[in-house]
Structures are given as C-alpha cells and as structure tokens.
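Usage

Read records sequentially. Each one opens with the input sequence:
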Amino acid sequence: QTQARHWPPGRHDPPAEDKFDRMLNTFQNLRDEAARLLLEEAFLDLEVHFDDLFTSKWLPSSIPVDTICVTLEDYFQDYNHLREKNFEYVINEAQNLVYKKYITAMLSKKVTFKTAEEAQQAATKIVKEANQIRAFFRRIAPDGVNVDWPFEVISMLAEVLKCQDIEMLSLDLHGMLEKCPDITEEQLLRLLSLRG
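and closes with the structure output:
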C-alpha cells in the first residue's frame, strides 16, 4: 500500500525497488519495536495482576481480570491516537500478550483443584474471564479486527478442566491440539494435573 502510494506507476527499476522494499521493512520494524515499547510499559503495570491469577485467592475474586481490563482501557485511551493500522497492530499484540500471560498463569504450578466441583468452578470462571477480556477487546477494536480466536483457546482449556467423561476428554484434547498444534506435552500434563 505504501509502495503503491509513493512509487511511480509503470516504473521498473529493480535495484531501486529493492532499496525501497528494504526501507519499508525498516519502517515496519520500527513500528513493531515502538508498539512493543508501548505495551511493555502497560504490561509492567499489569504483571502483579497476572501473578494473582490461578492462586488460592483467585477463585473467589474477580479483581485481577477486572483490573487488567480497566488498566488496559486506560492505556488504550492514549493509543487510540495512533493511525488505524498501527492501532490495530497494538491491539493484536496486546491481546496476544494477555492470552499468553493468562495461559502461562493457568499452567503454572500455583494451584491444583482438589475436587471435581472445584475444577468445574474454575472452568466456569475461566470461561467468564475469557469472555470478559474478549468483550473488552471487541469494544476497543475497530471493525474487522479478530479478537475471538485467542479467547476461544482459553475456553477450550476450560472445557478440559470441566470434562468428567474420559472419552469426551480425549475428544476435547484432540480438538485443542488441532487449534493449538504448538502446545507441548508438558503443558498438556500440567493442564490435566490441574484437574486434581
């Protein structure tokens, strides 16, 4: 798109086109680094709240995820002055960071649910929190930005916690592996060990 705006139509100069492409890549890398730095500050503020997820005080409280959403909303009030493509990029990067940090907290060894009922409560809470975070990103994201897929994965992880039938558990795990082929055996074992 940038090349189409700034490069004369019908002009073919391979060495110049190569230099122009390298310059565009440099600008793209600068944009990516600037977005990373913007989000680094926000996520430093959020670190303590991600640390509170999946601890003994997490199950009865909505404070960590509420605070994560409110804090991100505050930061995104500043970010909405970015150009639309850059704003979309920051939103995508932020949702990926939230998704990764949430799953990392879930699969850390902070808590194990002792009963099937406790695992059911946790699964319900996980789905509720995934929906809350998804709703936040839907609210701030411009039309056309996909904010669903990362939180669908979190809901799939919750289904594994919720499942009582071994055959259904096998199907849930298979579906999750199709959606997340890069999940490790260690992460799967940790997810299963959460069930108690």
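Summary fields computed downstream for this record:
- The longest helix spans residues 14-51.
- The chain has one domain: 14-194.
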